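Problem 3 from the worked examples.
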Amino acid sequence: MTIRVLLTDDDALVRAGLALILGGSSQIEVVGEAANGHEAVERVRAGGIDVVLMDIRMPVMDGIAATEAVLALPEAPKVIVLTTFDADAYVVRALAAGANGFLLKDTPPADIVDAIARVVAGEPMLSPAITEQLIRQVTDAVPDARAGQAVERIACLTDREREVAVAVGRGASNAEIAADLHMSVATVKAHISHLFTKLDATNRVQVAIAMHEAGLL
């Protein structure tokens, strides 16, 4: 299946560079470009987008607001945030808003292609170290009352789902979770899908945050 990608960045040169990089992949097709978040939302609304590469700092509508708006649409695509800074405050806010991962703008071309394929397949986009850093930044900035709310949220999880959620929070890949918990990768994906629904999460970082706030990490 060809992955249809929308490039969103206010710098035309960045968009041109990404289009050139992705154009070399047989599994990816760049189907549109947007110069700001508002344009991105309207293009996604028109349909036919699987992944949005989303810059954070843009005029008219920034990448955080655009991410929230895109993910609120029916059959929303995956969103990968583009940034020049590793896990800065804007990245944390974008991931908390539901972005599926982030890429540094100087990421090697092959890694960008791989990241897009992985996020479509439901694989994690963040290393355990980055996940831990992001969780710390989010949870340190929220009141203790969130802990009680998190415990209530995870009460609906089965024991198996809780085990998978903790593994997700530790940054494990689907394959690693499958090996550690002695189940198939397909079963792991099914459990993660259930976690997203039950925890009202759109990405693995949000699941990890819930586990951390509930005191399970």
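Problem 4, a separate protein:
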Amino acid sequence: MTRRGSYSKGIAKREEILETALELVARVGYGRTTVKELADAVGLSQTGLLHYFGSKEELFTAILARRDADDRAAFLAPDTPPELPEGLVRLIRHNAEVPGLVELYTRFSAEAVRPEHPAHPHFRDRYREIRQLIAETVGELQRAGQLRADIDPERFAVLAVALLDGLQVQWLYDPEVDMAEHLAHLWALLAR
């Protein structure tokens, strides 16, 4: 019984760490968030904090995975793929409110191209999933007569993901770039 209680407490503490880390990184950014600050915020030593994740990179990968799960639940309902265009626009609009998480995402996505990086599997799988979701949605919208039939769904999905990532990088350099407006414009072009 003690073991089960200890396990539950460990899960709860890990969740607390992720929630606190999401808030802190969103507010101050990846570059200004230290393991010490996160540990202090949840009442642990740095070693105690990393006990739950293994390394700083694994901690920040878990933060990104949590962010993705929260965003999917809030903006990309899996049972209504035709809603994806509006959901992606809302998601990108939301991203403009959490610049620290956008910074973390763009930095880690570039660093994780190395197969040995702890975030490599996360990004590889994430890119596959979002491309598949976009391709399926484009196909459904085409069958419903809402998008042009001459668009190749798989090729469009690759281009759309490149656009999403590129918009975020441009926005980090110039916050005047309205990411959501540009994405909405793309969907409007396709609907013509």
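Solution to problem 4. The two ends are 62 Å apart (CA to CA). The first helix runs from residue 2 to 28.
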